[in-house]
Each structure stands twice: as C-alpha cells, then as structure tokens.
Design a protein that fits this description.
348 residues; two-stranded antiparallel sheet; mainly alpha; 14 helices; single chain; 2 domains; 8% strand; three-stranded antiparallel beta sheet; hpI Integrase, Chain A
C-alpha cells in the first residue's frame, strides 16, 4: 500500500487543504487528516501544515513497513512505539538530521495523542512531558521540557559572512529586484519565506516601513533602511511588470512574468550567484544570521533584536549570538572606560 500527500483547495472552513491518502484508492488516512484539520482550524500556516503532512506521511509509511498495514488502532500502540520509530530513522542511510527526527516524532506524538488520548504513557506523554511555567527573561512562550526520546541536536554554529564576502556577492547582482531581496535579508533580517510572501501593499515606502505577515494573521512592523527604500522604489517604478499580481517580488521574464516569485526561483537565483562569486556559504539564512551578528556588534539589545527578527522566544535569538574573545575584550574595555570609577590613590 502506498501513501502520498495531496493538496486540494476546498471551501470547507474546517478542512486542511493538505491530505494524506492511499495512492491506489484515494482513501484518506483518517487519524492524520483529522489532526491536520485540527491544526488548520487553529490557523496554522499552510507551510507548516504541509510539513506536518509530510512528517506524518513518513510515520505511516514506517508503520506499514513495521506492521504490514497502514491502519492504526489504539490497541496497536505500546509504550515503545515512538522509540521504535526513532531507532528506525537512526538506522536509515543517509541518516536524517537530529532536528528532522525530533520534528517527525513530535508531530506523530501530537497526532496520536489527538486520536488516541488513552493510549499508553509513552504515546500520551512521551515527547512533551510538561511545560515550565516561567518565561525566559519574561519574554516569549513557556519553554517545553522534552523527554528522553528527543535526539540530541548538535549546537548550531553559523558563521556570518565577512564584509568582503557580502560586498562580492552584492556586486554580482544586476537588477534592483534582486538587490532589494538580498537587502531585506541583510539589512532587515527577513527569512526567505517572509520575502516571498510579501505583497505590494506591505511595503510602506513613504513611511520607510515594512509590514511582515506572521502566524494568526498578525503583522510586525519593521523599519526600512534608506538603501532598501531606494532599491524598492527603483524596482517598483522601472522593473516590476504591469499588469502584475499582488505579490511584491515577481518573475521579470518568461512565461511566469508578473507572477509571484517561487521558492525554487529564489534558490536558483542564489545558486547562480554562489557559483559566479565562489562564495558557497552565501544563502538566505546566512544573510539573516549576518544581520543578527551585525546588530549585536552595533550594540542592539536582545529584546529589540528579538522583535526585529520575529522570534517568539528570546532563546531563539540567543542562537544567533556568537561572541568571540575579541568581542569580550572590546566590550570590557568600553565598559571600563565609561562606567568604572578611578581607584583611590594608595597611600605609602
């Protein structure tokens, strides 16, 4: 039996557009689709729904291999179910990353608990055992205490691009559209998905502001650097096709001219310029990391940077902060010069 994820636009307000189905019959996998519907009602973004659907597709494919059926009943679940799933992924070649394994196990745990609330404890409480009732530094969501089933994730150490690398990569672009896209990542810290999701009316150029759509129909306002305003103005006046879709960034030529730029198109753009400049580490997320590092070095506070980057938890912002010994020395020297009083003279 083979399964797949399909996308179907529906008028039903309580039904997720992403469904997991049997390929041969088109029959939906009930417990998975009910969970996706539940998350859709909670106004989860379509990108997240798609990821959840594919993670659950992976789980149900494993279940069929391990149990020779795609159907799951409450009596089939035992305390070691999720542990067996982790072991299966750890034995695969190539082995999934620890983050991927954790994400798959987490969504499987939530979906199974949603369908079988009385299942054994490893299912009901295995992955997210408890919520700590304090918020780090008074900001963000309560942190989650994870269980022993969580695979250890190596600490991320993303090195920002150097000034020379940024200058070389920047100078390889020729259109204001492409320069504005890179500028929004480098000078405003936007994610690639946020850049692609922007509409024309999100750019408030007369006010030098940008409205960034987020989860739950919420927006955050970002200040626009003068360089970005100039690039966007030039792109909108001289390069953006007319007529055009509501998207801010669109394809400039070919059959897709005037339609929203796609994630594949953005990846292709960066790949082309990486090859041309030889800067293999130049990708959208590294520009975002470079922005965060530059803001920290310029003296911006962590709470302010957290708001700019759209983080809900300041612990996420801290992942972007890399402090070198030179940074420590310079910060200490500056603090001593500004705030430490001279010592009294020592009498002989």
């Amino acid at each position: 039996m083979k399964f797949s994820v399909i996308y179907q636009q529906t008028s039903a307000n309580a039904q997720s557009p992403f469904r997991v189905v049997e390929q041969a019959t088109g029959r939906g996998i009930g417990w998975i689709n009910r969970y996706l519907d539940r998350e859709y009602v909670r106004r989860l973004a379509n990108t997240s729904l798609r990821i959840y659907a594919h993670n659950l597709l992976h789980f149900v494919r494993w279940w069929e291999i391990a149990h020779h059926t795609g159907d799951i009943g409450e009596g089939d679940l035992i305390e070691s179910t999720l542990l067996e799933y982790v072991r299966f992924q750890a034995s695969q070649q190539p082995r999934p990353s620890p983050s991927t394994i954790n994400d798959r196990v987490a969504v499987a745990d939530r979906a199974l608990r949603n369908e079988f609330p009385d299942a054994p404890c490893q299912i009901a409480h295995g992955f997210h055992q408890a919520f700590l009732q304090r918020k780090p530094m008074g900001l963000g969501r309560p942190r989650v205490a994870t269980s022993r089933l969580r695979v250890k994730v190596p600490k991320r150490n993303i090195v920002p691009l150097s000034v020379d690398e940024v200058a070389r990569f920047w100078s390889s672009f020729r259109t204001s559209r492409d320069l504005a896209i890179v500028g929004l990542m480098l000078l405003q810290g936007l994610r690639s998905g946020e850049v692609l999701a922007l509409n024309r009316d999100h750019a408030l150029l007369s006010e030098a502001q940008l409205r960034i759509p987020g989860k739950g129909n919420k927006f955050r306002l970002l200040p626009l650097a003068p360089e970005t305003v100039q690039l966007l103005n030039h792109y909108l006046r001289l390069e953006r096709p007319n007529p055009c879709s509501v998207a801010l960034f669109v394809s400039l030529k070919g059959r897709a001219r005037g339609t929203r730029m796609t994630a594949a198109g953005l990846r292709s753009l960066f790949r082309y310029h990486r090859q041309g400049t030889g800067i293999q580490l130049a990708n959208p997320h590294r520009f975002r990391h470079t922005f965060a590092s530059d803001m920290i070095r310029a003296g911006m506070s962590l709470p302010a940077l957290m708001r700019l980057m759209g983080h809900e938890d300041i612990q996420t912002t801290l992942l972007y902060v890399q402090v070198t010994p030179q940074d420590v020395y310079l910060e200490y020297a500056r603090a001593v010069a500004q705030h430490i009083r001279p010592l009294p003279a020592i009498s002989s």
